[in-house]
Specification:
The chain is 38% helix and 20% strand. It has 489 residues and is an alpha/beta fold. The chain has two domains: 2-249 and 454-473, Aldehyde Dehydrogenase, Chain A, domain 1; 254-435, Aldehyde Dehydrogenase, Chain A, domain 2, CATH 3.40.309.10. Helix 4 (80-91) packs antiparallel against helix 7 and helix 5 (95-115) runs parallel beside helix 6 (152-165). The termini are far apart. Bound molecules: nicotinamide-adenine-dinucleotide. The site of nicotinamide-adenine-dinucleotide has 29 residues, from helix 8 and helix 9.
């Protein structure tokens, strides 16, 4: 069994306590990780604050910071396979996906490396004579980055990269599920030459680690990705320190297939949005609305494709669906599918553990034909390869159905009619609309939701400003010294 170390103030440290991680493909313990204590969190935040104000980091120019981020990006590219495989062993996600996603994570660091020296202030055309007034954008302070288990390298990059580009320091709390790649990544931070304390990576649970970190008086910014219930804790925690908070939360995203859609493309979109990453993706398009004229045909095609999907070891090249990340996820998937069938959904395929996969937490690609949105599988985000399909007849009807959710992260529209694509995209209340495609991301494209999916954005240019605060400087340019304020002229 491997034992990982936490990374605080540039040192790799043993934990005072540990938790074990199980390999989802075998159900067996494979590694243990430090469970950060309150004292560990305090040391990490202290180190981050010291590095923010003293030593090499604040003395570096923005261009030098950019170069250091580029060095980190190169190291990630070099180690993408190793990092990807660790994530796969720990989370069950396909190595094919974790390796290429980790390789692409380097692009997030490169993108923000390029922005580091393009963070500028303004000169204010002030409404008073004899003043030169200008603004500068300064680092906001110590950033706490909290990530969930399903794509830690990627979700951490969307926070660490802009935070460092803007000159902040960071404490990352990796998820208690599958944190291996994040602690390996700490070695690359070290190798890239970041001064001690600039990035600290700890592993632990919501209590005490997450709570202490997000309510810490020295933390100025909390960047959170996770579930809506945890987000409520984060918001309450930050009432202690008034930290700026960004929230990237869950979803129950619609995919709409009109009767004029390219059917193969639509089926690929539905499969990518639901069976990709075994459905364990925040943008999963798990409410699928299909025009009644093509409903049976599409369901038949999905069923055919599901039967051909290779379920297996996530490290194997041929595998298309790996295990779910935790036994709790698997039990939940079984329960939700069973409840949904009881409520009136028709099980078209899947719905159970495959017979041939031993103790791993595997679940078959599943298709439920649902009469309406009252069914549990339509209502609940439950992170499994399960499609809930429903019929519609008119555009107005399907827009209303798609918007009838408390979430608003992503959405998909399949149609060959350009005017309809624009019309429908405009009316969908979600932060992302994919037209004739699904589940694509880029460091250049803002990512985030509406409603209870959290209103913040990650990726894109504007995010850099979420990691700065504005300082306004007033300079008296008159020849005479400042007048006595109590003597009226
Ligand atoms: P979670 O909310 O249970 O945990 C997320 C993180 O919060 C973990 O690191 C956890 O330890 C930490 N945490 C728990 N309690 C805390 C507390 N009181 N204070 C501070 N931190 C605390 O989420 P999860 O089950 O790991 O991940 C799944 C959720 O994440 C889903 O809802 C999914 O949709 C969402 N997600 C969203 C996005 C996005 O970008 N919008 C991306 C991926 C996942």
């Amino acid at each position: 069994m491997q034992t990982f170390k936490q990374y605080i103030n540039g040192q790799f440290e043993d934990g005072s306590d540990y938790f074990e991680s199980l390999n989802p493909a075998t159900g067996k313990v494979w590694a243990r990780f430090p469970a950060a204590s309150e004292a560990d969190v305090n040391r990490a935040v202290d180190a981050a604050e010291t590095a923010l104000y003293t030593g090499d980091w604040p003395a570096m120019t923005a261009t030098q910071r950019g170069k250091m981020l580029r060095r980190l990006a190169d190291l990630i590219t070099e180690h993408a396979t190793e990092l990807g495989d660790l994530e796969t062993i720990d989370s069950g996600k396909l190595a094919k996906e974790t390796r290429s996603q980790t390789g692409y994570v380097a692009d997030y660091y490169l993108y923000y490396a390029g922005l580091a020296d393009k963070i500028q202030g303004d000169v204010i055309p002030i409404d008073k004579p004899n003043f030169h007034v200008f603004t500068t954008r300064e680092p906001i302070g110590v950033v706490a980055a909290i990530v969930p288990w399903n794509a830690q390298m990627f979700l951490a990059a969307t926070k660490i990269a802009p935070a460092l580009a803007a000159g902040n320091t960071v404490v990352v709390k990796a998820s208690e599920q599958a944190p291996a790649a994040m602690l390996k990544f700490a070695e690359l931070i070290d190798k890239a030459g970041f001064p001690p304390g600039v990035v600290n990576i700890i592993t632990g649970f919501g209590e005490p680690c997450g709570r202490v970190l997000t309510s810490h008086p020295k933390v100025a910014r909390v960047a959170f990705t996770g579930g809506p219930e945890t987000a409520k804790h984060i918001v309450r925690n930050t009432s202690e320190n008034f930290a700026h908070v960004s929230l990237e939360l869950g979803g129950k995203s619609p995919i709409i297939v009109f009767d004029d859609a390219d059917l193969e493309g639509a089926v690929n979109g539905i499969i990518a949005g639901n069976y990709g990453a075994s459905g364990q993706s925040c943008v999963a398009g798990s409410r699928v609305f299909i025009h009644s004229a093509i409903y049976d045909k599409i369901l038949e095609k999905i069923k055919e494709r599901a039967a051909q999907i290779v379920i297996g070891d996530p490290l194997a090249e041929a595998t298309q669906i790996g295990p779910l990340a935790t036994p709790a996820q698997l039990e939940r998937a079984e329960r939700v599918v069973a409840n949904s069938v009881e409520q009136g959904a028709r099980l078209v395929c899947g719905g159970k553990r495959p017979g041939h996969m031993g103790e791993g937490w595997y679940f078959e690609p599943t298709l439920l034909a649902c009469p309406d949105q009252s069914i549990e599988s339509v209502q609940t985000e439950f992170f499994a390869p399960v499609i809930s399909a429903m019929k519609f007849d008119t555009e107005a009807e399907v827009i209303a159905m798609a918007n009838d959710t408390r979430f608003g992260l992503s959405s998909g529209v399949f149609t060959e009619n350009l005017a309809r694509a624009h019309r429908v995209s405009k009316q969908i209340r979600a932060g992302i609309v994919y037209v004739n495609t699904y589940r694509v991301i880029s460091p250049l494209a803002p990512f985030g939701g509406f409603k209870q999916s959290g209103g913040s954005r990650e990726a894109g240019i504007d995010v850099i400003h979420d990691y700065t605060r504005t300082k306004t400087t007033w300079i008296n340019t008159s020849e005479t010294p400042m007048a006595n304020p109590f003597v009226m002229r």
